[in-house]
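I would like you to sit down with the pair of lines that follows and say whether tokens and residues agree.
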Amino acid sequence: MRNTLCQPVKLPTERPSPLDPPLELGVFRDRDPVTPMLFPDGHRGWLVTSHSLVRSVLADQRFSARQELHHHAAFDHPFGTERITPAEPGQFIGMDPPEHTRYRKLLTKHFTARRIREMAPRIEEIVEQRLDALEAAGRGADLVAEFAVPIPTLLICEILGVPYAEQDMFRHDVATFFRLDSTQEETHGAYAGMLAYLGGLVPRRRAAPGADLISGLIEGNELSDQEIATVALVVLIAGHETTASMLGLGVYTLLSHPDQWAGLRAEPDLLDSAVEELLRYLPLFRAGLMRTALTDVDLGGHRISAGECLVLSLSAANRDPQRFDGDPERFDPGRRPGGQLSFGHGVHQCLGHHLARVELRIAYAGLLRRFPRLRMAVPAEEIPLCTDMAIYGVHRLPVTW
């Protein structure tokens, strides 16, 4: 076992450039991918930075996803000063099997690869509508407001059975929930507001059911109305916020590499690998995923004690030279795809990974086809980045063509 008496580090969060994770993450990964870490509340845990070990932890049920066990915030945040309670019924991402499995099984059929392929024509229709709106705006628009946000929002609303016209009922709360400068009261209020809206929607779907997810959960008669609302809230947040961020930041990345944008126009068959490369390359999450050891575990030559929290850096894992050929610090749409951990791994792998990939591919393809001369309307350094959000991206992306 290695000596673990070295001074623990704090989670680095300072980005050297808009598209790169903190440099220290790579230093830690190369020196020792299991690094003692000091959390803001004084807890001593671990920072895991290599691809193989992050993947290993995510597949190992000796490490728990239960939220009440890893309540120590990895960075300064309002939630870091309060005790986190066990996940309420329906909040399955903060549970372990078998509770997690029970909820996930009820949702899986809505997000299978086959089901998403069947949805592709509708996704294409939504994308075309947003491309029309962009074109109607004239010679310039905010790509985030007009394209990146509406596409996944409309789609997840249709999947859930949430009227898109009522999106204002939750969009503000979602933003408040993810803003790093929100107070505890604001964060709790935003969560309660979203849950109250969905709780009021459940009886409406019961009275007028459709082919949507909420109606399906009601028909299954396995969950209470409160559980249905909570499950719907998890899907709502996960189903559009990360994809919207990925769409906006992905276009920003491509336009920051005009040679790559031109290359994709010339070779559209590279689009699938380009989507995987963007997922690998872009650091969307400020910290990563968290797990807590349920028992003493040996990991990477270190003894992890029961109760210690681990921060799994997806950004560092996705740029691990031991896993990715060539220079993983370089954005390369032609890189052989596969292996990125942006959707997680194991039983908690993102339920909507098939949906996100199809949305991204169709959206990027549409932009390349309709606006081959798309470019940023202001210098890249003037684009407002989401450094104030738990999920990274661009607040606005003024473009012209």
